Amino acid sequence: MVIVRIKTLKKYGLRWALGLLLTALAVLQVSGALRIDAVERMDTFFADLRMRLVKPVLDPRIVVVDIDEKSIAEVGHFPWNRKIVAQLVTQLTEHYGVAAAGFDIVFAEADNTSGYDVLAQLAQRELKDVGGFSARVAGLKEQLDYDGLLVKALQDQPVVLGYNVAENQRKGKLPNPFFNTDTLNGRELPAIASNGYLANLDRLQDAAASGGIFTALPDPDGILRHTALLMRIGDGFYPTLSLATAAVALQARAITPLWETNVAEMSARQRANGGLDTLLMFVGQEKVPLHIAVGENLSNLIEFRGTGGPKGGAFPYVSAADVLAGRVKKEVLADRIILIGTTAPGLLDLRATPVSSAYPGVEVHANMIKSILDDRFKVRPDYADGIEAIQVLVVGGVLALALGVLAPLPSMLLAAAMAGAVFGFNYWSYTEMDAVLKLAMTLVLIAAVFVLNVAWGYFFEVRRNRGLVSRFGEYVAPELVAQMAENPAQYNMDGESRELTVMFVDVRGFTTISEGLTPKQLREYINLYLTAMSEDIRSAHQGTLDKYIGDAVMAFWGAPVHFSDHARRAVATSLLMQASARRLNDDFVARGWPELKIGIGLNSGLMHVGDMGSNIRRAYTVMGDAVNLGSRLEGITKVYGVGIAVGEATRAAAPEFCYRELDLVRVKGKNEPVAIFEPLALDAEVDDATRAELANWHAALAAVRAQRWDEAEATLAALQALSPQRGLYQLYRDRIAHYRAHPPGESWDGVTTYDTK
């Protein structure tokens, strides 16, 4: 018997020891003694996955009034004037009798769209002598004061206005805080704090029942998972839109922090919050107490339900246009909590969340309101560490001993059964007990012990040999991968800041193209186009192919392999791509397919480059203001009728090319104007006729900026006669006509401002 045990120990002892060692390391991880970032990221991934697995149940108590594409088509472009907003408020409060209405919109600027200011100026100046005109204008003041109309609509109604926190800015008026530092009696209450805000006009906030913060604070990976219930501004603690709207709907009389005074009985959550136990809300005339659990920094995990939007399955959606027109049945909105927001893609109120990369921001507040009404929040209990440690010990011990002696198939079945049981228990704890337990370390341990006993040697060897190619092979040309493989220590995917050049490419009129082709033809069309563009980027000038965004392509030069001439390579590639597009177009037209035209935007500057994204999907990409400008430049190529637009930094970094200056623009998101240019060819390849045309064009541009309209128009007319196909000349002739009718004034700096992306 002893001999048998010795043989067994010799045969399986090393595997058992290594398996138990892995189990011990896992216990250290879940207990907090050892921190493995990869496991933390996996826990985030599994938490997101778990949330996506929960099937939503429609909650009719909370309704989203959606400023959707239908509303914009019927009512007009957004933002709407305050008269329309006032009508919407009146419909909701007086016609439908809602319990509360929260605006996921801020009204920070006065509404001057009625034209009253213009009439008042005329009455004081040009038309002051016209009999009765001044009196008539004065009589119109009340009905043309759109902000005043909204004030009247808000008076004595359960409406909550949303606003943003903003560092180093104080604009508008804050609502009354729920409580302030004096209420704390010297206690410290950790909270997300801001020294500024972008709030609503004073008279609008004074008329509203309350106000709430709708600022979204995503995690470091850019995914929104938590939201504050209260935030601190100055000495006051102000509610978020969800808490403020719920308080108005429940007719809360007061909200105050409730403290745990016995230090020995404090939970970890209470200790992290300075002893705070819950927020105590007194509801209704009877002041019924409602306890609202809060997490660290007065923030809670958002329980996302469904995939968001009208088809998400969690909350009813009605179009704002239908509310304005009274087409919604009263029972749908009566006594409901209403949130007014937008899902229209162009209005950019979409958030990256665990359940969707484009989740309506307004529905974030709806989820929190539901949790408040149900008094159910997902929390990590104090006993979580203990449960996770016991789970790791049991699972690791059983697998370490069993897998070493089992054949491959039983080993696979046992490991799969263990993983299924662990995941099932975790899911049950989340859905039934509202307990957030970590899962990744246990699953990693199962996988590690299984791999150790089956194929660990082969697995790790292959992973080492192919790591570099698998990570960079899809981004850069094969010859660059080979170069990187010779000295892999010099390259990694860690984030860093570099001077790079970024490119954005898009197909003009792709919607029309897709409508004119069968699915099979469209697939071949887009595949031929993307292949040609990708080959030009990767092979010709060794660019890094970032991603495809539908029919758009994003690329950059200068990383992971450094090129000092990244701007030159990018400009040369853009010219090559336009030539490739023309060749493709000839082929497409010969096949009877729609015409192919592309627009390209280039910009150079300091960018953040590295492996970025979420725990669900990551990519080696670039981010930063310089990247955003590159995207804007691609978007405005169609305005100027050109195939390529580059920023002034790119032009300065690649002076060997000949450029046509297009304009001096201020794009959305940037305050400083930027000169933009169209590269034509290498400077040495430009003929005399083109140089003469460029000289005349730049003279015309200078005349426009100097407001010498006659001179500019004459030069442009001559240029257009020589090159009638160039839309740039007609664009500036139209601008001159506009400036004649609406003189820009002596202080005009010649800058064209774009308010849209």
UniProtKB/TrEMBL annotation:
<feature type="transmembrane region" description="Helical">
    <location>
        <begin position="413"/>
        <end position="430"/>
    </location>
</feature>
<keyword id="KW-1133">Transmembrane helix</keyword>
<dbReference type="Pfam" id="PF00211">
    <property type="entry name" value="Guanylate_cyc"/>
</dbReference>
<feature type="transmembrane region" description="Helical">
    <location>
        <begin position="436"/>
        <end position="460"/>
    </location>
</feature>
<dbReference type="InterPro" id="IPR050697">
    <property type="entry name" value="Adenylyl/Guanylyl_Cyclase_3/4"/>
</dbReference>
<protein>
    <submittedName>
        <fullName>CHASE2 domain-containing protein</fullName>
    </submittedName>
</protein>
<dbReference type="InterPro" id="IPR007890">
    <property type="entry name" value="CHASE2"/>
</dbReference>
<dbReference type="InterPro" id="IPR001054">
    <property type="entry name" value="A/G_cyclase"/>
</dbReference>
<keyword id="KW-0472">Membrane</keyword>
<dbReference type="InterPro" id="IPR029787">
    <property type="entry name" value="Nucleotide_cyclase"/>
</dbReference>
<keyword id="KW-0812">Transmembrane</keyword>
<dbReference type="Pfam" id="PF05226">
    <property type="entry name" value="CHASE2"/>
</dbReference>
<feature type="domain" description="Guanylate cyclase">
    <location>
        <begin position="501"/>
        <end position="634"/>
    </location>
</feature>
